[in-house]
């Protein structure tokens, strides 16, 4: 199927814009490859240090004739999604030996959970943890003792951070190794209903805790389609997983065999063979477009409007929100997974999952099928379903129809002809909005605003009944430079309650909303941010604000002369405690959301 003309045009736009940076990046990784490998060039004392921690592999490492795989792991057992990685390294070492390779844990990276820190000071470290993960990945791989790498991470900032760091070693073949989602517990809609009831004071803390524990009850990622699970969809579309690895549950035979296959694929695509597939060549402009398309087609997390540009920059590629906006107008919505529907990711997987979506998009010319993937079968293999039969991992063709058309649709019968992302622009700056879960009659909201500096202030005003009216809630000084751009997930229940009461409600912020953002229209990632003079700082209580997702407008309806003369709000002091002061360097150098809100990339001139 020929490419859709708009997909081709957007791809060409990205390629043209990225030429200088991409050329410099490819020169970097070619120079690293041209060195012929690092281990043979290391001094004997250097090598002895690298091999001293292992007994069983030392002789094999010493002969230098086989691939040594570096494992970068985000394991900790405080987070359900990363707890399954506990035994992975020892298993992966065995599987590497089966394939004639060796493996060592190159390093660990931090993995924090937005679900734990939501609404508290720790969330102000969340976005910058991505830069810390990228730098940790670079430290792990800097020992120059690896010919390939396996990246163990799954959640919100971890996968983008791993990729951003790993791409600076793009001459190495690498594979992303997910751990899978927990099995379904309390339905997400039931959980949301209890949260809203708690926000209204109709249930107490014990009932709320019971509901939350029933929803988040075991090892694996959360089952809603937030940032973590959107990560997995994108990695499939970029060809960086073993095909179909995204949503196999932990502790299953299928999950084990997919991980074994990931390890054993690396020696096959190393530079000593005739099928060399380095990460930096796999992640090209077409792969980035595939990730954006997959995100739009499934109603994925708004956080990736920050993360995907940052990943791209690490590979010398520039993608902006206009690219997303143009793609969204031609990419149909093929999946409804909570918060865009009632099903969780296990239901999505059972209905056909990522392979079904990829097959439909490839068949409609809405995804690049010719990218270099880690799989021998290319993107076509990502359109097939993995299974274990007689102890053998294999891939099967999918049925033509989805398993449940309330969750998943064919390309010729989508839930919506558009992907549900829009750019908003006006005298308040430039923002983005996810409308795939917002009813069409709420795409346009015009109401007086109420201005806040924290989400705690919003919650207090809600409890006091001060927001029981049509209102645009404005939360400012939430950008990367102000406080690290925390998610404002705690606002979802009260805003949802106000909307349920019949009020016309919207949120406008220079911060982030959760990957679980849903039915309330939210203009997020507003740039420029309030700190440093962004126009959101001029808003005053009672100003009428118009959010129009149909026309792409975000406007304060204030007389132009008055608006121009109006002073900017005073900047709040930088907060102390919970380690936030250690991240001041990140605050100072972070660039705008549309570029990825990264201090590390900005400081590196990427």
UniProtKB/TrEMBL annotation:
Presence of keyword Iron: yes
Domain named Dihydroxy-acid/6-phosphogluconate dehydratase C-terminal: which ranges?
407-597
The family database entries (Gene3D superfamilies) matched by this protein are listed as: IlvD/EDD C-terminal domain-like
Report the residue ranges that make up the Dihydroxy-acid/6-phosphogluconate dehydratase N-terminal domain in this protein: 67-380
Q: Taxonomically, which superkingdom?
A: Bacteria
What Pfam families would the database entry show?
ILV_EDD_C (PF24877), ILVD_EDD_N (PF00920)
Q: Which family does it belong to?
A: Belongs to the IlvD/Edd family.
Q: What is this protein called?
A: Phosphogluconate dehydratase
Q: Source taxonomy lineage?
A: Bacteria, Pseudomonadati, Pseudomonadota, Alphaproteobacteria, Sphingomonadales
């Amino acid at each position: 199927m020929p490419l859709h003309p708009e997909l081709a045009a957007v791809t060409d736009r990205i390629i043209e814009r990225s030429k200088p940076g991409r050329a410099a990046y490819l020169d970097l990784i070619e120079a690293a490859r041209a060195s012929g490998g690092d281990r043979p060039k290391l001094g004997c004392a250097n090598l002895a240090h690298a091999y001293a921690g292992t007994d069983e592999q030392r002789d094999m490492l010493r002969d230098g004739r086989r691939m040594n795989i570096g494992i970068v792991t985000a394991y900790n057992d405080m987070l359900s999604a990363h707890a399954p990685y506990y035994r992975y390294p020892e298993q992966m070492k065995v599987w590497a030996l089966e394939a004639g390779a060796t493996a060592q844990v190159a390093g660990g990276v931090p993995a924090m959970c937005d679900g734990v820190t939501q609404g508290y000071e720790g969330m102000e470290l969340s976005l910058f943890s991505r830069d810390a993960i990228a730098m940790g990945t670079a430290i792990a791989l800097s020992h120059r003792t690896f010919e390939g790498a396996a990246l163990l991470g799954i959640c919100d900032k971890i996968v983008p951070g791993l990729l951003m760091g790993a791409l600076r070693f793009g001459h190495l073949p690498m594979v992303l190794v997910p751990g899978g989602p927990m099995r379904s517990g309390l339905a997400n809609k039931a959980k949301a209903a209890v949260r809203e009831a708690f926000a209204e004071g109709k249930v107490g803390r014990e009932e709320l805790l019971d509901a939350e524990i029933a929803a988040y009850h075991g090892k694996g990622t959360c089952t809603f389609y937030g940032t973590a699970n959107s990560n997995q969809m994108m990695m499939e579309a970029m060809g960086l997983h073993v095909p179909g690895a995204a949503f196999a549950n932990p502790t299953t035979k299928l999950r084990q065999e997919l991980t074994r296959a990931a390890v054993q694929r690396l020696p096959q695509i190393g530079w000593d063979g005739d099928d060399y597939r380095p990460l930096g060549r796999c992640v090209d402009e077409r792969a980035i477009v595939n990730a954006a398309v997959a995100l739009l087609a499934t109603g994925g997390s708004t956080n990736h409007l920050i993360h995907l540009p940052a990943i791209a920059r690490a590979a010398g590629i520039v993608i902006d929100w206009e690219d997303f906006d143009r793609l969204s107008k031609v990419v149909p919505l093929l999946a409804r997974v909570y918060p865009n529907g009632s099903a969780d990711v296990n239901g999505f997987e059972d209905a056909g999952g990522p392979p079904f979506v990829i097959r439909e998009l490839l068949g409609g010319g809405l995804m690049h099928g010719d990218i270099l993937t880690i799989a021998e079968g290319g993107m076509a293999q990502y359109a097939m379903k993995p299974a274990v039969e007689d102890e053998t991992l294999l891939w099967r063709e999918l049925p033509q129809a989805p398993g449940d058309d309330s969750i998943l649709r064919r390309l010729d019968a989508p839930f919506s002809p558009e992907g549900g992302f829009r750019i908003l622009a006006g005298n308040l700056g430039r923002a983005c909005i996810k409308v795939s879960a917002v009813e069409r009659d709420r795409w346009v909201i015009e109401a007086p605003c109420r201005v806040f500096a924290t989400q705690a202030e919003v919650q207090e005003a809600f409890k006091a009944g001060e927001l029981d009216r049509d209102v645009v809630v404005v939360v400012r000084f939430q950008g990367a430079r102000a406080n690290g751009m925390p998610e404002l997930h705690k606002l979802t229940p009260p805003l949802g309650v106000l909307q349920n009461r019949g009020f016309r409600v919207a949120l406008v912020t220079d911060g982030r909303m959760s990957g679980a953002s849903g039915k309330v229209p939210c203009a997020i990632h507003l740039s420029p941010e309030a700190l440093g003079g962004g126009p959101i700082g001029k808003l005053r209580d009672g100003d009428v604000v118009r959010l129009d997702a149909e026309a792409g407008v975000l406007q304060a309806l204030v007389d132009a002369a008055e608006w121009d003369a109006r002073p900017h709000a005073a900047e709040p002091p930088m907060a102390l405690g919970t380690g936030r002061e250690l991240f001041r360097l990140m605050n100072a150098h972070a660039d705008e959301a549309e570029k990825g809100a990264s201090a590390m990339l900005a400081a590196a001139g990427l």
